């Protein structure tokens, strides 16, 4: 048998046969038969003894082999037990590691969840603190408002205590009345605002009318100045004509008849002018009749100038009316075009 680290290799041994050659001694002289018998007995004994020795040695070797095989089996069994124990230990170790890893991951998740919950709780606490602060400030404001309104409550109760009629039965009736008055005040305020806006529009339109009136007055003043200038020029021309007439009268005294005719015509015209202007002259006062020809001519000239002014004004009024009609027609046409 040969044992190695990996195992035991068993080798079989064949029985050892020892052949002992017969020995012959020279000291003893025997007979050939006895010698042969003794030799055969000695050889057999020796052979038997050798066989026994070999058998004993083989038994010893076998016992040694069995002992070593038993040790090897015990070692293999111990090794298998150790390996199984080691495998179990390794499995337990791996299981322990996995359990620890699972516990660690659970602990980490739990820590993360607890941290998240802690942050949420802290945020919720901060929010609650802010809300508490806001509610406290609101409570203080409401308390101050209540303290401010408490005097009005006392005033309303005092008003109710002094109320002799049945108009107000409780403070709510007074508050309703006050709210009604506030609504009416709002309506009146809106009406006031509307009236103020109407007043502003009226003022603006009045200012525009005043501007137009001022423009018209300026235009009339210009016309009056022009007429005054024309009147002065007419007076100058009349004076020049009167001077010329005086000279002619002085130069041609022989033309008295013509002058009398002219005087009569002038008197007639003067009378007609007086009759025509009697209702409008001096607010109904009658013109004092004079026989002065120059005065009569002056009156006639004034009457003619008034007639010319009236005619000119009438023409201008007709022109303005025509222009207004044309503007209205143009406006209607533009409106019709826009509507179409």
UniProtKB/TrEMBL annotation:
Coiled coil: 44-75, 102-152
InterPro entries documented for this protein: CFAP_domain-containing, DUF4200
GO CC entries: cytoskeleton
Alphabetized UniProt keyword annotations: Coiled coil
Boundaries of every DUF4200 domain copy: 48-161
Transmembrane spans: none
Protein's recorded name: DUF4200 domain-containing protein
